[in-house]
Amino acid sequence: MAGVDASVPGTRRARSAAVPIVALDYPDSLSALRLVSQLGESCRFYKVGSELFTASGPSVVEAIRREGCDVFLDLKLHDIPNTVAGAMRRIRGMGVRLATVHASGGRAMIEAAVQAAGSECGVLAVTVLTSLDSRALGEVVGAESADVAASVLRLAALASASGARGVVCSGEEARLVRARLGSSLELLVPGVRLPGDAPGDQSRIVTPEAAAAAGADYLVLGRTVTAAADPEAAMRAVLEQLSVEKRLRTAE
Predict the structure, then answer these.
(1) What domains can be seen in the chain, in order of their start residue?
(2) Which of 6, 23, 40, 114 is a plausible cystine mate for 1, CB 3.0–4.6 Å?
(3) Segment 143-160 mean pLDDT
(4) Is pLDDT above 80 for 202?
């Protein structure tokens, strides 16, 4: 597993290849688990988001883990520190590998999440959602527009200072975060699409190869795999892109 020694939860190692995570953005566990079975050994890490977790609860996490796969629980917690800590203790108890909070929740909230998660579960802080561009972010902060990259860097620095394992940012900002903060943070990049795929509701998208080259440790793949006519073929294409990027990086 990139950035983490899978044999010792919570520890780091030098980054090797970016790890693909398929987003199980389904309304029910039956559809989600069908894809897990279909992809088999080609994917061993899955994202469970708000829709699926609200529909199926902890049971879907347990079912995915029974298949020998890791789980990224992407609930983007954002509440007072005590409430977030309580939720994170429950998340840790499910055996979740990675979980998210919003960096905008502040230092005390992030620190509470990290303490509650312990070494078993890595806390990733969401910087700026990939659905937001400069104008949309400006609406949030009360301006005509906002500098997305500057906001991502500011929140990433806060997450690092608060003890988070890593941050969630788009591929456009991953290289900037890596350059500013080095290897102190693991980077998870959502909104990853194969060349030619529609962007959907994402404003800042990137290919698997480009995200890995920018320094991503984890890539979240949604509709580029789940909505493909042949999900297995799409997953093979992703793995091939990551293999090419790794060969190029090794040759440097």
Answers:
(1) 19-251 (3.20.20.70)
(2) 6
(3) 94
(4) no
